[in-house]
Write a structure and sequence with these properties.
The complex is a heterodimer. Chain A is mostly helical. Chain A has helices at residues 6-18, 24-30, 35-54, 59-120, 126-137, 141-160, 167-183, 192-215, 220-238. Mean pLDDT of chain A is 71; it is low at 116-138, 248-255 and 260-294. The longest helix of chain B is centred in the first third of the chain and has 23 residues, at 22-44. The chains are: A mainly alpha, B mainly alpha.
Chain lengths: 294, 196
């Protein structure tokens, strides 16, 4: 049998010791012919490992960094959800814009048709005409939701970039929310798509305003709290549940929830798909530099 | 406890952390922060740098974890590449500023009395000083294997080398460390040779 190289035997004994599988003596007894060479090297390696192993960061440092790490993770998660939904809303808004033009054309066509029909058949009641035009008149929400999303997006960009948000921007958001609320006469009578769109918009706004209220200074923060009140009021009047605001940080859990099932982000809104893009930054594809072969 | 990570066992945790699960991120932090800290301390010899850089590493992890892919490397290898790059980056900044790294200043060791603290400072200082004289690859292997507690396989993936190569580098590093540490002070006496 070909003799094993010393570096392999050294590593095997070292790994066995570090993993608690064998003591130093047990390893040495397995390789009596190498003992003289092996023992001093193993003792040195164990001393190095033990010495490094004894050093640790002070508890308060470890706790502080944990807090910052988890807070940052929480903020990033909320930001990701918000960005996703705002992008989604932007697409919906663009579609709604096209839809609106089509609806105007359709209304014009229907109007012409109704007028023509009225001219020919004067016995057709005005009730029939209202029924004809009703679908067009009953779709005013998309522009208002688009305005709300625009206002949210502007706020989000500023908050995300660390730029001060002006109280006036918050007040404008509140006004847009109130206008939207006035257009929703009966939330439960809306179709499911419209309800979902409004629910998302209000839920995102609620999280956004929480973020601003907690990160901006006066007079913006108090204004954000007032806007939160408006948002909550609207949510109550529509009968929708607002998402729970995630805690800034979470301590080590007794039993990890992910062990049984992957958890979803804490939001009432849809979660984005995992990002599978190829890593492009130095952090995403870190490379060892200066690794010279001996 | 074995310092080596178990890549398969930690996969659900890492996947959950990638999805933003707070408890998984917390668990990940608990598992890796001490190892990252020890690795950086072994590389820099400075507790302040180790604290700052360990924090920086975890913030970078947060930025990049969504893009982590299992097919490229184990999570530990990926994480310690980030840590390595942070150390190198810090070293460049220090070089640019003309600051030399101070060994053993304020080394913090928890739950130790003054005698033990002094002894540990000396031991860590000696070892760090000796390791500093090794070629970069040997320094790297020593820090990854003995401070970060990576296996040979994980060390190899972190460094982009073969496992056989890592074993050779490790052997050479230990031989040199023994020579240097033997000159510096007598070998430590082991009261017990039982496995820890």
């Amino acid at each position: 049998m070909k003799a094993r190289r010393l570096d392999e035997v050294l590593d095997e004994c070292l790994s066995a010791y570090l993993e608690g599988r064998r003591s130093l003596d047990e390893s040495l007894s397995l390789y009596p012919s190498l003992r003289e060479e092996l023992e001093p090297l193993l003792r040195t390696a164990i001393e190095v490992a033990d010495t490094f192993g004894e050093s640790s960061a002070p508890d308060h440092i470890e706790d502080r960094v944990r807090q910052e790490f988890l807070t940052s993770a929480s903020v990033r998660q909320r930001a990701k959800l918000l960005t996703y939904d705002l992008n989604f809303a932007q697409r919906v808004g663009q579609m709604a814009g096209r839809k609106k033009r089509l609806l105007i054309l359709a209304a014009f066509a229907v109007g012409l048709g109704v007028a023509g029909t009225l001219a020919v058949k004067s016995d057709i009641s005005s009730e029939s005409a209202r029924r004809e035009t009703a679908p067009v008149a009953a779709s005013p929400l998309s522009p208002a939701v688009g305005d709300l999303r625009d206002a949210q997006q502007q706020l989000w960009r500023r908050a995300n970039q660390g730029v001060d948000v002006s109280p006036e921007m918050i007040r404008a958001l509140s006004r847009t929310t109130t206008v939207l609320d006035s257009q929703v006469s009966d939330f439960s009578a809306l179709d499911s798509e419209a309800r979902l769109e409004l629910e998302r918009a209000i839920a995102d706004q609620y999280l956004l305003l929480h973020l601003i209220a907690n990160t901006q200074s006066a007079p913006t923060a108090p204004e954000a709290r007032r806007a939160l009140g408006v948002t909550q009021q609207v949510a109550r009047s529509w009968g929708i549940d607002l998402p729970q605001v995630p805690p800034a940080a979470q301590a080590s859990p007794a039993s990890p929830a992910y062990a049984s099932a992957p958890s979803q982000p804490p939001s009432a809104t849809a979660s984005p798909s995992p990002d599978n893009e190829t890593p492009s930054t130095d952090t995403a594809t870190p490379r060892i530099e200066g690794g010279n072969s001996p | 406890m074995s310092p080596n990570s178990h890549a398969q066992g930690e996969r659900p945790m890492v996947d959950a952390a990638r999805a933003g699960d707070a408890s998984a991120l917390s668990e990940l932090y608990t598992l890796y922060f001490p190892r990252v800290y020890r690795y950086i301390l072994a590389r820099t010899g400075n507790t302040y740098d180790a604290e700052d850089l360990a924090e920086e590493v975890f913030m970078r992890v947060l930025e990049a974890i969504e893009r982590f892919q299992w097919r490229e490397a184990p999570f530990s290898a990926w994480l310690f590449r980030i840590a390595h790059n942070a150390v190198i980056s810090q070293r460049r900044k220090e070089t640019a500023r003309g600051r030399s790294s101070q060994l053993s200043e304020g080394l913090a060791v928890n739950s130790q009395g003054p005698d033990e603290l002094v002894e540990n400072r000396l031991a860590l200082g000696d070892i760090r000083e000796a390791a500093e004289k090794l070629p970069e690859a040997q320094r790297q292997v020593i820090a990854l294997r003995f401070a970060a507690g990576l296996s040979v396989a994980e060390t190899a993936r972190t460094m982009g080398k073969g496992e056989g190569n890592v074993k050779v580098i490790q052997h050479k590093a230990i031989v040199k460390l023994r020579e240097m540490m033997g000159q510096a002070r007598p070998a430590r006496v082991y009261e017990s040779e039982t496995a820890r």
